[in-house]
């Protein structure tokens, strides 16, 4: 078989551009080909095999949706079950107390915190992929829900005529608060907001869990620190037991502090003493647990001990009747019946639901990945979205509020030997025991003790402030993100603050790419290493060559900045140089036509002042008479480094090559590509100028003056004066 091939872009009809290729192989018929290559028949699967394969694929899908089927079938009972039981009991006690305490952040009765500590665990056991996180209330998300609750169900909406105690315990004759209606409405708002979090499920099904990664660590750190301040101020009024108005939104911290200090004289001493003692004892024992965690087999459950002791003291000394202490009062036994959400609230809480869902998921996945890396297994981020989405829907239907995880609670579950979510189920059993049997024993417990437990568990969030100096040294942009998010969340509220922090973070990304770090590289003498000229003293620039490096993507927003930095680096504007040289050449052309420049032959070259004229090789030069040459068609070449015979200020060019280092450029958009092509064309025009390729076809008619100094022609340029 003979094939003829032509190079693209050449004359297809030119015989010299035809190249024959010969391919030699046996000529096959189809039976001969199949016989020589031993064709094999495809195996036909039986119906049973097809069904088996289909069932295997279906089982794989089911295991993906319900990871519990996979790991529970391989659960090592003898090795893991004893540790999970111990861990589950310890974590269950902590879950119960934190549930009671965190309910205060949502501004609902403490019993609903127990529901929120129980129901999410059941769903996450079936759908979750983390072995160690303890699912339940988290102070930040609880506070975000609480701000919505206070906005949609403030005390002012439940005022009734009558004589008694006014709003928030203030004296107001003729006005009282319908507490039962207020609590019913508030838990309806909280549970409806929780049910409206299937956005997590939708995000998981669409496999867009990566979007949450836009919440960077500095942003989350600044946000959670600000949330810790909000939690501290919201619990401060409970520890002091002073009357305040309910505030949410912008400057809520300031307004709450004003109310607290305005009514500071009404502080209940019994609640204050109980709260301060609880904070000191809990923080001290937690510090001991942290310092001697390798020596203590099980952390001391200080929250449980303090709660039991405080409830006993309150019951024995009758703190409520004698000293007016604020206690939990009623913790009804059993579970609340399931109820649908109030769809009328949807548009009022949709935005807050989304931000709460994102924050809860981001925190939970961050904690889960820490322990997954520690114990060498993987987390499926999209499956976690689905797991938390269904957990929140299930919890909200039974009067619970948003579930996530808390680092302190998860640390208890892992440090006490928890190996899997079996520990989570056992902790749920412990919470259920409290709900069904032991809840009434905690009715005398002071609310200030629960608030103090919440405050004592904020230490880890406040310690994030120590990251700021490190961020300042490592990356100031990240430091600014941390500070801006924290400040915005403290001043504007958590919802608006999170949005403001996210916008600021995106702004820093835009700024860092819009004004990228560009540098000129030089060579380390004696090596093939090239580094930034500004970073080293023992470095030299390659003569005649500029190496320009850009350390960011190039796109429509920064292409103008890129071109400006490139112009500064090369030291000239190629378009201006080209125009100036063209102007000079036109004037030289005029001088030649007017006969003000003379030419002489030097090895078949014509020199006119600072201009070298090359004869057309296709023509024969005439005879020279009296030093004058006949009129040929010539090419004008100029050495732009020397003085020109015309008055045109042409910028000097000191380089002959430009290297663009795009090793750090991750992408180029269409605008950048078009602009770079234009830059390339202008640089090519300049390059032609530099290599003396400007050609001006002239006819020399009269040469009246002659002035030239000829340098050796073996140089790239002919220098003339």
TrEMBL record:
UniProt domain STAS: residue ranges: 535-676
PROSITE patterns linked to this entry: SLC26A (PS01130), STAS (PS50801)
Keyword rRNA processing: no
Gene Ontology CC annotation, any one: membrane
Transmembrane segments: 100-127, 134-153, 187-212, 219-238, 345-373, 385-407, 422-442, 449-468, 480-504
Membrane topology of this protein: Multi-pass membrane protein
Compartments in which it is found: Membrane
Keyword check for Transmembrane: yes
InterPro entries assigned: S04_transporter_CS, SLC26A/SulP_dom, SLC26A/SulP_fam, STAS_dom, STAS_dom_sf
Keywords, comma-separated and alphabetical: Membrane, Transmembrane, Transmembrane helix
Any one GO molecular-function label of the UniProt entry: secondary active sulfate transmembrane transporter activity
Pfam family, one: STAS
Alphabetical list of NCBIfam families matching this protein: sulP
Protein name: Solute carrier family 26 member 4
UniProt organism field: Oncorhynchus kisutch
Gene name of the record: SLC26A4
